[in-house]
């Protein structure tokens, strides 16, 4: 029987939630704790392919700040303790 803590989907969920909550915390405390809101954005802007019957838009942007990275690290630590 497989252990519940070894589920990769649970890890992905915890990392996503940790990043989102960390990003929100970084935005909330942007003025009082400036180091938490320091971050970078990577990715590429959306581009559209129009084939007359099909229109496809592709794009990817990842915005990380220090608080979201800390949230991801805490999520991984919590996952390893499950």
Q: In terms of per-residue confidence, which ranges show pLDDT below 50 for 5 or more consecutive residues?
A: none
Q: Any idea what the radius of gyration is?
A: 17 Å
N-to-C CA distance: 16 Å
Q: Sheet bearing the most strands, described?
A: 2 strands, antiparallel
SSE order, one letter for each helix or strand? HEEH
Question: What is the approximate shape?
Answer: flat
* Tally of helical segments: 2
Number of strands: 2
Give the strand content: 25-35%
Mean pLDDT value:
87
What class do helices, strands and sheet pairing give? Answer: alpha+beta
Strand order of the largest sheet: 1-2
**Percent range of helical residues:** 40-55%
In short:
This protein has 82 residues and is an alpha+beta fold.
Description:
The protein is an alpha+beta fold and 82 residues long. 45% of the residues lie in helices and 28% in strands. The chain has helices at 8-28, 66-81; strands at residues 39-50, 55-65. Strands 1-2 form a two-stranded antiparallel sheet. A hairpin with a 4-residue loop joins strand 1 (39-50) and strand 2 (55-65). Helix 1 (8-28) packs antiparallel against helix 2. The mean pLDDT is 87.
